[in-house]
């Protein structure tokens, strides 16, 4: 890792880009596009699994469970491969680009005088910097990053920014799974151990579909390793293990950012501040999440 491109900067860029990616899962425009395809929209999961898995092609439950990792396979099986009976992945990909385009136009507007508007030079500059980093990402062993990187780049800068954010967050996520596996944390243990250090309330992690019995069994396994107490609070060893997972995740996420260097990363962070505030200002994203953003 370079001395100037610090882990703190790499993590900051993830924190800034993640909300720009996540509008796909929460924006009303995305809900509209999902409904037009035929997905149920009473909750976000039918479209979530379709939106996120579509770059992989018409894959089944086992592949999506492996790639997403933190979801109970039984939950994944409720939505995949049934998602492709509603719409094939090519139609889903076209619809998600329309969804992001509509959502971004609603959030940012088209006024070129607005420094965070879609026509502003700053957004186009941010898109160029993020794209350079995304195109530099090595995707061997990173299936979700590779699948998104293989898609054609959109023409418009705001969609390029979203696409770059998506490649980079999936690149980071794929690396995070490698860090969890190295730490010998299975899918549900990864959530229990993260809740144990206060990343989010246990109720937040319930969205991943694990039963109370599965959660309790994972806690028992972690307690036997000395990583959590009987009530699920992390021990010193548990906190150290999670810190090492996060350190390793930052390290594995660094390489693409070397393409723009420390100065480019600093400039991108400056440019993303305004759009980040606008997205959060919509109130569409949850205040607490399973990624631990805002907690560290």
What is the number of beta strands? 0
Number of helices: 15
Number of domains: 1
* Secondary structural class: mainly alpha
Distance from N terminus to C terminus (CA atoms, Å) equals 21 Å
How big a fraction of the residues is strand? under 5%
List the secondary-structure elements in sequence, H or E: HHHHHHHHHHHHHHH
> What does the radius of gyration come to?
19 Å
**Strand count, sense and closure of the main sheet?**
none
Could you say which overall geometry the principal axes of the C-alpha atoms support? globular
> Percentage of helical residues?
55-70%
Mean pLDDT: 94
Low-confidence stretches: none
Account of the protein in words:
The protein is mainly alpha-helical and 296 residues long. The chain has one domain. The chain is 65% helix and 0% strand. Helix 1 packs parallel to helix 15, helix 8 packs across helix 15 and helix 11 packs across helix 13. The longest helix has 26 residues. The radius of gyration is 19 Å and the shape is globular. The protein starts with 6 loop residues before the first helix and ends in a 15-residue tail after the last helix. The mean pLDDT is 94.
């Amino acid at each position: 890792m370079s001395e100037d491109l610090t882990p703190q900067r790499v993590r900051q860029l993830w924190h800034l880009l993640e909300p720009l990616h996540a509008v796909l899962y929460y924006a009303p425009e995305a809900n509209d596009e999902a409904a037009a395809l035929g997905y149920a929209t009473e909750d976000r999961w039918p479209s979530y699994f379709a939106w996120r898995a579509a770059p992989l092609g018409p894959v089944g439950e086992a592949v999506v469970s492996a790639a997403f990792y933190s979801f109970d396979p039984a939950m994944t099986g409720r939505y995949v491969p049934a998602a492709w009976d509603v719409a094939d992945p090519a139609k889903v990909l076209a619809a998600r680009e329309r969804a992001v385009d509509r959502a971004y136009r609603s959030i940012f507007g088209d006024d070129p005088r607005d420094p965070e508007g879609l026509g502003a030079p700053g957004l186009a500059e941010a898109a160029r910097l993020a794209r350079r980093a995304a195109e530099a990402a090595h995707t061997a062993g990173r299936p979700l990053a590779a699948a998104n990187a293989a898609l054609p780049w959109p023409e418009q800068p705001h969609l390029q920014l979203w696409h770059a954010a998506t490649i980079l967050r999936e690149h980071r996520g794929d690396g995070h799974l490698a860090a969890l596996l190295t730490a010998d944390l299975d899918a549900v243990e990864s959530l229990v151990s993260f809740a144990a250090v206060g990343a989010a309330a246990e109720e937040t992690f319930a969205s991943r579909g694990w039963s109370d019995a599965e959660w309790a069994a994972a806690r028992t396994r972690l307690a036997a390793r000395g990583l959590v107490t009987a009530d699920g609070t992390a021990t010193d060893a548990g906190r150290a293990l999670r810190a090492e997972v996060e350190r390793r995740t930052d390290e594995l996420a660094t390489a693409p950012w070397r393409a723009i260097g420390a100065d480019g990363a600093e400039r991108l962070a400056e440019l993303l501040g305004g759009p980040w505030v606008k997205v959060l200002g919509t109130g569409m994203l949850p205040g607490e999440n399973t990624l631990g953003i805002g907690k560290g």
